[in-house]
Amino acid sequence: MTPFLRCAVVGLALVVGACFESAQPLISSASADFPFAKSFRYAFYEWDKEAKTWQPSETGTINRDGDHYVQIDDGGLVQEHVVARSVRDSAAVLDVLAGMQLGDPYTAPTPARPFAEEVGAPTGRLRIAYATRHPHVDPDGGGGMIESHPDCRAAVAHAAKLLESLGHIVEPAEIPTLSDPEWVSRFLTIWVTGTAADLDEVAELLGRPVTPDDVEPLTWALAELGRLIGAGAYIGAWRWLHAATRRIATFFETYDLWLTPTVTEPPVPLGTFKSPPDDPLAGIFRAADFAPFTAVFNATGQPACSLPLYRNAGGLPIGVQLAAAYGREDLLLRVASQIEAAQPFEHAATRA
Questions:
Q1: Does 350 fall in a domain?
Q2: Domain count, the chain
Q3: CA 278, CA 248: separation in Å to the nearest integer?
Q4: Cβ–Cβ under 8 Å, residues 345 and 308
Q5: Which residue(s) pair with 260 in the sheet?
Q6: 12 and 136 both lie in a single domain
Q7: Per-residue b/e over 271-309, b at no fewer than 16 CB within 10 Å?
Q8: What are the DSSP calls for 77-119, one per residue?
Q9: pLDDT at residue 162 is higher than 80
Q10: β partners of residue 43
Q11: Do residues 99 and 66 both lie within one domain?
């Protein structure tokens, strides 16, 4: 059974599934305007072996004042959007969600016009780089740059050929900064500290401590690790990522877009990221090797999108990622809509 978090955002239903096999309790929340509502309902669920279903074990309502907004990020590393069926829909939702909320500590640049107007707009001839090699994450100290799975390389080659046919200049180029072995340790320093802070905030809102039985073992291990991180290490990690972000920004002075696999392997079986009891952090290191191309733009704040353009011999979808310079969501939407017009997205899983 797959744990899930269900919430509602401005009238749009989002369902996020966790890729773990577990009998751990799951949390469900709902509000009219999550995460900015003044109150929301919550429920912890536990697996009922006899009924073979999830049953609520604790429910309630949390009232929040203006100082208690649920943070669905880790120090700004993640900002949620939606999984859309078309570029048009993605742009329309972004128009709804984008913009500064009162008191935000930071915000993205204000677009010149609505994002919906970028769909189908001329792109001009762009210079686009592509890469498929990525840092190998080895918790025992090894590493180096390795190639993505052949299916993922084939997906990038297909997208590169399509972009060339649309008139763009496409050539191989890696971002040198991404080969730095410090990426994972600096990123995880911030991530685990954020996890610890998240659980502390949930405990405050619930009015009771969060226990290991309330969350996945990996989540608990990350929080415990986060509580060991000192203030100096946390600030140092952010300074390192900010410096790396500036170096990466220079790459986008030469190239308009960067094309990569979305992840480094085809879709993996459920349970792949589950940590064994004797190694609770194994899941996060496995995930870091699986999604290194997306994590970098969590750190830099640049816009990126995953496009469904390819399937392997087994029929599994293989996504490719396009990333643009900071603040260039407009360009990303133009090119994505150009690609969609040339190769309409297939929704093979759509139910009749």
A1: no
A2: 2
A3: 37
A4: yes
A5: 321
A6: no
A7: eebbbeeeebbbbbbbbbbbbbbbbbbbbbebbbbbbbb
A8: S-------SSHHHHHHHHHHH-SPPTT-S--PPPPSS-GGGGT
A9: yes
A10: 28, 59
A11: no
Q: Same domain for 329 and 276?
A: yes
321 DSSP β-pair partners: 260, 306
Question: Tens digits of per-residue pLDDT, 14-52?
Answer: 222 222 233 333 333 333 333 444 455 556 666 677 776
With the C-alpha atoms ordered 53, 54, 57, 58, is the resulting torsion angle positive or negative? negative
Q: Which of 54, 70, 86 is the last residue of a domain?
A: 70
Q: How far is CA 173 from the centre of its chain?
A: 23
User: For the stretch 35-59, what's the b/e string if a residue is b when 16 or more beta carbons lie within 10 angstroms of its beta carbon?
Assistant: bebeebebbbbebeeeeeebeeeee
Question: Residues 190-217: pLDDT tens digits?
Answer: 999 999 998 998 899 889 999 998 998 9
- Determine, yes or no, domain membership for 82: no
Tokens 């999108």 — which residue?
305
The amino acid that residue 39 corresponds to is: S
Q: What SS3 state is found at 257?
A: strand
Amino acid symbol at 101: Q
CA distance 88 to 95: 11
| 137 plus 64 within the same structural domain | no
Joined tokens for residue 321: 């990622």
**Which among 234, 235, 238 has a CA at the least distance from the CA of 225?**
234
CB 3 within 8 A of CB 18: yes
- What DSSP element (H or E) covers 192? helix 182-206
CA terminus-to-terminus distance, the chain: 25
Tell me the two tokens of residue 103. Answer: 């008191």
Strand order in the sheet with 127-130: 169-172, 127-130, 257-261, 317-324, 304-311
Q: What is the distance, to the nearest Å, from the Cα of residue 10 to the centroid of all Cα atoms in its chain?
A: 20
